Amino acid sequence: MNALADEEQTKARPTKTNLKQWIAAAIFALIAIGLAQVVPTIEIAWVCAVLMLTIYLFAFEVVGVDVAAASVMVLLGLTSLLAPLMGLQQGLVDTNNLFNGFASNAVMSIIAVMIIGAGLDKTGIMSKVAGFILKVGGTTEGRIIPIISSTVGFISSFMQNVGAAALFLPVVSRISARSGLPMSRLLMPMGFTAILGGTVTMVGSSPLILLNDLILTSNQALPDAQQMETFGLFSVTPIGLALVATGIIYFVIAGRFVLPTSKGDEDVTSGQQTMDYFDQLYGVEYGVYEVLVPADSRLIGMSLDEIEGTCKVRIVAIEKGDGLRFGAQSVDRSTGIDAGTVLGVLGDNTNLENFVEKSKVDVKPELDIFADALVPNKSGIAEVVIPPGSNLIGKSARDVWMRKSYGLSLMAIHRGGETITREGGGVRDTPFQAGDALVVHTTWADLAHLENDRNFVVVTTEYPHEEVRPHKLGFAGLFFGIALCLVLFTDLRLSVALLTGAIGMVLTKVLSIEEAYEAVSWKTVFLLASLIPLGLAVETTGTAKWIAEQVLAVVGDQPIWVIQAAVAVLATFFTLVMSNVGATVLLVPLAVNIALGVGANPAVFALTVAIATSNSFLIPTHQVNALIMGPGGYRVPDFMKAGGIMTVLFLIVMMIMMNIIF
After folding, report:
1. Under 8 Å CB-to-CB from 236, ≥6 apart: which residues?
2. pTM over 0.70
3. CA distance 586 to 69
4. Would you say residue 172 has pLDDT above 90?
5. For the domain with range 379-458, which CATH number is right: 3.40.630.30, 3.90.226.10, 3.30.70.1450, 3.40.50.2300?
6. I want to staple 112 with a disulfide (CB 3.0 to 4.6 A). Which of 157, 369, 462, 498 is the partner?
């Protein structure tokens, strides 16, 4: 009965969802028809209709957000053909400019920072950053989120926020893999704080970079008595710091309620599935532990071979103060144990308890020194087969020094329907035969090398094929520094500055061109590039100006702070449906004129617009939100839930701080 009920619920759910979508579609259509009755031109009416369609597709996820954006772009292009039938003189967007988004500064910048981030990740530096954060913050969400967010917020204050977010994507991925915290619980706080960090300095976001130029342009039309002064680099710092702090506190307190919960990072999940697979198939059950050898331990003076001969555990990593030894050409069975040695031990709970009791060693509560090496995205259990013709046939694991030579710690041999394990005895002394399936613990890098070794056939295929190139750290750091300096200290376009760093990493083989292509999230690229024509239509048809005039007409007789708040709300709305740069360029002149009309400070109103255009958390139209949407597995409702509250908090804190500072 329960199964039948579940099946009926499963069948009923799509019907209910479709009904909600149809009802919402009808409501949005009625709104569009209503707007058509009051707008001054037919062009604005059609643009409002397209806006309603876009918001509907995003909010109810009728199709993927990238597909929705691309569909809207194509629809805008078709208006050139259908213009006579729509009552238009020409299309809503010139088809010659329809695909300019793919070559826009913002999109090319995003592509560049993704490549730069991948290049830095290839050197292993991001793993070290992740390790440091885990060492300081532990594995609890309440401590990790503030550390990640504050770090990203600081970086974002001096470089484009999407660049900061892209650089920290691999860091968050590694933290998720090591801590077991789902990516969905970490990426959104990081992304939101990256956006907030852009308000800390006048070079943190494109609107703030543009603001002083827009003020100087407005000054040309103003009398001497009304001239506005430009803002200094740190004029907005108190406001930005308050916003960053608000974002961090918000997620620390309310994160458990507003952040979506998923099964976790793929690497963690696949690692657990792998353990379950080998446990069920071969009876191989294990855990990974970090063990410290104290001065009074019985292991002192013994070799790894002697330890493993008496205890049913495998030592896969060792640290004696002279560097971490793990993988091929590193762990030698003749290695002796000294006081203070740290061991990476593989075994089940029972054998580990016996090992600890006999040896008088201390088990650490969680991985520390081996936190980077023994996580599922770097190493794990794998299955390899000895093929006919292998040079290993007739030899045992001890004969070939398998752990040292190949980086394989042998745990079991499956032969003829039977499994030889340590519990059965002699697994390391058993000569290999053709067809033997070996269950081993190894690094994924070592396993990748075995795929080209004719002595083995690698059965495990679903593992991270990651090649770390620490020797390229110098080149990666050099070109990252060059790109950063070009962004901060020159007038070069952001995309050109960042692409300089990206292409430099490719030319110096920090990563290959194929790896650079793989690093780019093309879903993000299509989402942003396809939305740019919509922003162009909103601007060129006069739709934006009409909406601004209507909203401001309603609050024209209110106190100055109410009018300022209305400007902030208007800027917030505009930045959701068009680029923040476009919203700033459009609204700053209007805000200046409104401020002069009501006797307020026009520079403060202009700054209100420039800051409020960073209040883009409600839907994934901001570059940062689009960037984290795929890796975090987020849906539009997730942004609405967490971003809705953040949007309100942003407006409240911004208004309070601006009225205190200015």
Report:
1. 199, 200, 201, 202, 208, 607, 611
2. no
3. 22
4. no
5. 3.30.70.1450
6. 498
